[in-house]
Write a structure and sequence with these properties.
Number of domains: 1
Shape: globular
CATH superfamily: Winged helix-like DNA-binding domain superfamily/Winged helix DNA-binding domain
Strand content: 5-15%
Strand order of the largest sheet: 1-2
CATH class: Mainly Alpha
Number of helices: 5
Structural class: mainly alpha
Length: 97
């Protein structure tokens, strides 16, 4: 129970998604958060851009999970789902390389 309380406290301390050009109209997502001008897997230092780059290069979620050992498979799938649901907004954030 203490672990749950600590996680809940951590989540309360996090700033909500900023209402700006990139997140306007996006619903809250427990897997991705916006901070420092970019999108990140929530609670980690892994950028959404790095997950998307691997996914678009043909890596499976399982391979991406192996390459980012700090992430769970659920977080990888959540990040990919967020990207696919908000592809247009994310493209504006991360223009083609």
């Amino acid at each position: 129970m203490q672990l749950m309380a600590s996680h809940a406290e951590f989540r309360r301390q996090q700033t909500p998604l900023a209402r700006n050009f990139y997140t306007e109209g996006m619903e809250h997502c427990e897997y991705v958060e916006q901070r420092n001008g970019g999108f990140y897997v929530a609670g980690t230092r892994v950028s959404l851009d790095s997950i998307v780059y691997s996914f678009k290069a043909g890596d499976s979620p399982e391979t991406i999970r192996q390459n980012f050992s700090s992430l769970s498979l659920e977080q990888v799938y959540g990040a990919i789902a967020f990207y696919l649901a908000h592809e247009g907004e994310c493209r504006r954030q991360y223009p083609r390389r």
